[in-house]
């Protein structure tokens, strides 16, 4: 029987970053919110729950508007962030324009350059870059005991994890090129008898590189980072999870475990009055759960039931947390063996 996430964190007390990944609509937000509740209210850790989903999923589950509001304290020790990535991209573009004007003593950015900068908001990677930067910035400040990230739907999530390495290498190359330019500037200034100017762009690039490096090191540090996939007992979710495990492994990230969500109670098969529709749903799930047990075995850390109502509001998050932490639902036995 899966032991629940509580057992995982008892065995891995150094974990300070937790990432929930998976397809949309499977329960990542419920899982991340449930763990955040447990860490903040039961373990009394100063907890930051961060949504990287462009949909306002945390606002929805906590039933209050936190989108773009910064770090909002929901309960003692529990802080929630739901960034407005579009606004963050716009602010970044404005900073770039300001730096160009400051560096060259301009009153305005030339029109063709401004159009180019504005067009970057349509770049596919710009949202991930802005979100990733916000994640790295929060972790770099070291103001919380544990950081829990609710990743966007699977495709975006993989790109965001890969983005760490891509951004780091990109900044490294730009920094090297900038360093050579700075050397030439210093030589030219010396020959003219002038003091070399401090390169503000260079300083910022080095700061970005250091921030990204420390965060990517943390992402791949198995003792300090826990990476969970959330799935439901359906065929497509099982196939997606298999592919995801391979992709994350190729990125150098080892999966800490799986959370199986939205499971109907097996007892419904034995109860009188269960409709044929529901009986068929439960029977189908039981078959898929056997497949999950067979394919993933001890990777399954927790099994969370289908609730009678949506897991919204503090009380329902607390209920979901109890199942997530102290797994009370067993996987069915695999035919020809035991799960």
UniProtKB/TrEMBL annotation:
Q: Which residues form the ArsA/GET3 Anion-transporting ATPase-like domain?
A: 16-324
**Entry's Gene Ontology molecular function annotations:** ATP binding; ATP hydrolysis activity
Fetch the InterPro entries from UniProt.
ArsA/GET3_ATPase-like (IPR025723), ATPase_ArsA/GET3 (IPR016300), P-loop_NTPase (IPR027417)
Family, per entry: Belongs to the arsA ATPase family.
Q: What is this protein called?
A: Arsenic transporter
- Organism the protein comes from: Symbiobacterium thermophilum
